[in-house]
């Protein structure tokens, strides 16, 4: 129950009540959990600030309630957060989908649209809904994060078709896990979809074209159903085409939705109209530029709102010429995303990589999009007429097949081409002089190709569907090599004379993409590489809750746990997992990886939360080395110490870097000061002695064991190399060990003289007094009573930056007296 309560607590500003059964029912339907055990569980929840109200349900008795009340009477109730996911658009199918400041471009799959897909329309008109459902599934598999559903066809009963299809989606978990976008120009069809759509969906769309009254009525209904809404840039004057009108209409709609309907700004999506270019009409030449400019202004002036658009409209002039249309879409998205476009209705899996577009075609497309060339339309039309038939054959030649096998494998991965990957992999494997082991083919050209894929994805030049294609090519290549690696392992066992049925693996590793994150390409690559290096890999997939990760690790007796994440919120979930591992007393090493992670964040934020090894793994190529060292019985302690020292240095460098940051003004610092409601938190414990306590002539010998010798050796610029870093291992270092021993012995002699000659005297003073902060002052009282004699007043110093601004260097914690 704890993970669910914690998850709820992070997701709501409301109070939380917890009233469990007295355990699970026994064979006879009774409950065996004692009052003391139930009370202990709830007390733990209360002590950790997870609940506001506790009680008992099935199987509990008055004795249970008495024990619970007694256990929690000293606990403070949970203090709800002031806000949760404030900057996020929250959507859901069967799984939550949060669109936040660091979310990549969101692909809304367009193929479940009777107006946009002939195949889908034909299936729906023939009432072949089961086959139509496969199109939705393919869209999700190809990377669609939201599904657009449109049933606008004159010969179709829209509301009933929408209801039937949405109900069928609900029965398919693989499809229903993503949110839906209910798309129609007929609001009756939209309402039909809202009535049967599980989770939180998007309504596409409403507008001001029929006036404010109709707009507000529909907006109120959408809000009542709990959906997000797409607002088209239309008003009573018609469709907005220039930048100023687009922003004007969207701004008007924004204020109506917030002020009159009460919409959350994060639930508002604007579609500033992607209109067709390349029509041959001069007045259409600015349409793409106007959309991009309007997007930038909307994101700047309408806080919280998102921007979307129907991408296929852009290239409608070139329908039937798919290569040109795809090139236009890839080029347009590359620039629109930079200026704030958050999502778009696209053909998931059919977006080209920006860098892959034929250079001549790319230049023509960008000249058209940016209206750089008065003849851009004519030139692109000429290109279209020249390359319309078999265009893909012209652009996608097999010239790359003439390169080396390494080049071919990398190219196939980057382009997502499966056709030749097996024969190329075999060619590389057969070159035993270059690749003595099958594993070397994976670590060489295959991994090099995947690194390029990661770079392109991070730069926004490649989209998630293309990354998925690359991963499938990688899987096919590795799948071909696995039998050869298994044969190699069997031969090695036979050569060693081993006949025992021992565990053939080096160790067991649990890998998971943490809760809230659906990205797993990097994790999958790590899993492949580790598996190929004789590790048993248990892959828990994506969106994996903390409790499942830890449960699987314990049940499978994992030697290492690896966490992966691509988006920034994943970092907080990783911190939470580390804290839970510490709370449960686990000692399993924890690996941290993923595009958003870093060694600095791991050292500063994650490692201090867990006493066992926490190691940041830069990429798959490092994972094998790290895992091998962590499982090496003879060297793992030294390796952990090495990592600990390195991370301590990183933390210190990080904290030192903060000293040079500009500070807040004094007024700003006071506003951001800690303000506590002392009625809502537990009263601090009172020390046994109030006042001062003096230690006279404290035994110096008792202090020697607490000397940290690392700064001593650092001053002398003596630093051992792994595994001989730190005291006392530094003495074993071949380079500095002898000198380190010499200066250490000299220091010991000096300490002995100081002790024997009693040349130094240790004295200590500690003091405890009631205190409170009053403004910038700390009031210290002579006795623990109120009112009390004010013993002293200390002013908190102010530190001024070079620019003349200041801050409170230390903000005291006020204590009630």
TrEMBL record:
Residues 1-72 form the Hcy-binding domain. Catalyzes the transfer of a methyl group from methylcob(III)alamin (MeCbl) to homocysteine, yielding enzyme-bound cob(I)alamin and methionine in the cytosol. MeCbl is an active form of cobalamin (vitamin B12) used as a cofactor for methionine biosynthesis. Cob(I)alamin form is regenerated to MeCbl by a transfer of a methyl group from 5-methyltetrahydrofolate. It holds the Pfam family Pterin_bind. The keyword Amino-acid biosynthesis applies. GO terms for cellular component: cytosol. GO terms for biological process: homocysteine metabolic process; methylation; tetrahydrofolate metabolic process. S-adenosyl-L-methionine binds at residue 708. Keywords: Amino-acid biosynthesis, Cobalamin, Cobalt, Metal-binding, Methionine biosynthesis, Methyltransferase, Repeat, S-adenosyl-L-methionine, Transferase, Zinc. It catalyses: (6S)-5-methyl-5,6,7,8-tetrahydrofolate + L-homocysteine = (6S)-5,6,7,8-tetrahydrofolate + L-methionine. Residues 105-366 form the Pterin-binding domain. Zn(2+) binds at residues 57-58. Its EC number is 2.1.1.13. InterPro entries: Cbl-bd_cap (IPR003759), Cobalamin-bd (IPR006158), Cobalamin-bd_sf (IPR036724), Dihydropteroate_synth-like_sf (IPR011005), HCY_dom (IPR003726), HCY_dom_sf (IPR036589), Met_Synthase/Corrinoid (IPR050554), Met_synthase_B12-bd (IPR033706). Methylcob(III)alamin binds at residues 443, 516-520, 564, 568, 620. Monomer. Dimer. Forms a multiprotein complex with MMACHC, MMADHC and MTRR. Belongs to the vitamin-B12 dependent methionine synthase family. GO terms for molecular function: cobalamin binding; methionine synthase activity; zinc ion binding. The lineage of its organism: Eukaryota, Metazoa, Chordata, Craniata, Vertebrata. Pathway: Amino-acid biosynthesis; L-methionine biosynthesis via de novo pathway; L-methionine from L-homocysteine (MetH route): step 1/1. SMART domains: B12-binding_2. This is methionine synthase. Residues 396-493 form the B12-binding N-terminal domain. Residues 657-817 form the AdoMet activation domain.
């Amino acid at each position: 129950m704890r993970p669910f309560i914690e998850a709820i607590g992070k997701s709501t500003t409301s109070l939380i009540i917890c009233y469990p059964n007295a355990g699970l029912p026994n064979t006879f339907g009774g409950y065996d959990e004692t009052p003391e055990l139930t009370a202990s569980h709830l007390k733990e929840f209360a002590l950790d600030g997870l609940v506001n109200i506790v009680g008992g349900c099935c199987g509990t008795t008055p004795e249970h309630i008495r024990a619970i009340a007694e256990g929690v009477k000293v606990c403070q109730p949970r203090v709800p957060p002031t806000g949760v996911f404030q900057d996020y658009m929250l959507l859901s199918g069967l799984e939550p989908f949060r669109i936040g400041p660091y979310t990549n471009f969101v692909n809304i799959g367009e193929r479940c649209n009777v107006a946009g897909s002939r195949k889908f329309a034909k299936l729906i008109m023939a009432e072949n809904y089961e086959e139509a459902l496969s199109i939705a599934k393919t869209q999700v598999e190809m990377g669609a994060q939201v599904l657009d559903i449109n049933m606008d066809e004159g010969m179709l009963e829209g509301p009933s078709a929408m209801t039937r299809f949405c109900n069928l989606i609900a029965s398919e978990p693989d499809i229903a896990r993503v949110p839906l976008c209910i798309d129609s120009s007929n609001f009756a069809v939209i309402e039909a979809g809202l009535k049967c759509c599980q989770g939180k969906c998007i309504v596409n769309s409403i507008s001001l074209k029929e006036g404010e009254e109709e707009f507000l009525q529909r907006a109120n209904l959408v809000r009542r159903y709990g959906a997000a809404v797409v607002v088209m840039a239309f008003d009573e004057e018609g469709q907005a085409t220039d930048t100023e009108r687009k922003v004007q209409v969207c701004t008007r709609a924004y204020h109506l939705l917030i002020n009159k309907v009460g919409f959350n700004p994060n639930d508002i999506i604007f579609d500033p109209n992607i209109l067709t270019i390349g029509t041959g009409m001069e007045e259409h030449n600015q349409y793409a530029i106007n959309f991009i400019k309007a997007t930038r202004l909307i994101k700047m002036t309408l806080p919280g709102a998102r921007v979307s658009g129907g991408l296929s409209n852009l290239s409608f002039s070139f329908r039937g010429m798919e290569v040109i249309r795809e090139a236009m879409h890839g080029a347009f998205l590359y620039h629109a995303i930079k200026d704030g476009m958050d999502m778009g209705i696209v053909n998931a899996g059919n977006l080209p990589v920006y860098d892959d577009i034929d250079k001549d075609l790319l230049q023509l497309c960008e000249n058209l999009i940016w209206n750089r060339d008065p003849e851009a339309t004519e030139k692109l039309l000429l290109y279209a007429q020249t390359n319309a038939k078999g265009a893909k054959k012209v652009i996608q030649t097999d010239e790359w097949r003439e390169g080396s096998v390494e080049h071919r494998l990398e190219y196939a991965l980057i382009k997502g081409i499966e056709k030749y990957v097996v024969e190329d992999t075999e060619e590389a494997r057969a070159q035993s002089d270059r690749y003595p082991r099958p594993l070397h083919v994976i670590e060489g050209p295959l991994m090099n190709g995947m690194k390029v894929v990661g770079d392109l994805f991070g730069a926004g030049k490649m989209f998630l569907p293309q990354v998925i294609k690359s991963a499938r090519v990688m899987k096919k290549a590795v799948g071909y090599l696995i039998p050869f690696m298994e044969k190699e392992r069997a031969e090695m066992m036979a050569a060693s004379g081993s006949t025992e049925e021992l565990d053939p693996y080096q160790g067991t590793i649990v890998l998971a993409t943490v809760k809230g994150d659906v990205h797993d390409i990097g994790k999958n690559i790590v899993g492949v590489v580790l598996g190929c290096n004789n590790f048993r890999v248990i892959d828990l997939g994506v969106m994996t809750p903390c409790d499942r990760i830890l449960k699987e690790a314990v049940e499978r007796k994992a030697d290492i746990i690896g966490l992966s994440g691509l988006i920034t919120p994943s970092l907080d979930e990783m911190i939470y997992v580390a804290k839970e591992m510490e709370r449960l007393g686990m000692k399993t090493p924890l690996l941290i990886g993923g595009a958003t992670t870093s060694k600095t964040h791991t050292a500063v934020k994650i490692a201090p939360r867990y006493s066992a090894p926490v190691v940041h793994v830069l990429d798959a190529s490092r994972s094998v080395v790290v895992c091998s060292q962590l499982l090496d019985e003879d060297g793992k302690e030294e390796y952990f110490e090495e990592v600990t020292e390195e991370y301590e240095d990183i933390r210190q460098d990080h904290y030192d870097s903060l000293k040079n940051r500009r500070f807040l003004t004094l007024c700003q610092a006071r506003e951001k000061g800690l303000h506590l409601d002392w009625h809502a938190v537990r009263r601090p414990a009172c020390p046994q002695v109030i006042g001062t306590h003096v230690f006279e002539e404290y035994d110096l010998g008792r202090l020697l064991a607490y000397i940290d010798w690392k700064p001593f050796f650092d001053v002398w610029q003596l630093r051992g190399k792994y595994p001989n870093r730190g005291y006392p291992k530094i003495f074993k270092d071949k380079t500095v060990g002898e000198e380190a021993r010499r200066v250490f012995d000299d220091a010991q002699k000096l300490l002995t003289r100081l002790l024997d000659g009693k040349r130094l005297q240790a004295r200590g003073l500690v003091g405890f007094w009631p205190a409170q902060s009053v403004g910038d002052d700390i009031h210290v009282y002579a006795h623990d009573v109120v009112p009390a004699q004010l013993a002293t007043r200390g002013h908190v110093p102010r530190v001024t930056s070079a620019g003349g601004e200041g801050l409170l260097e230390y903000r005291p914690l006020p204590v009630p007296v």
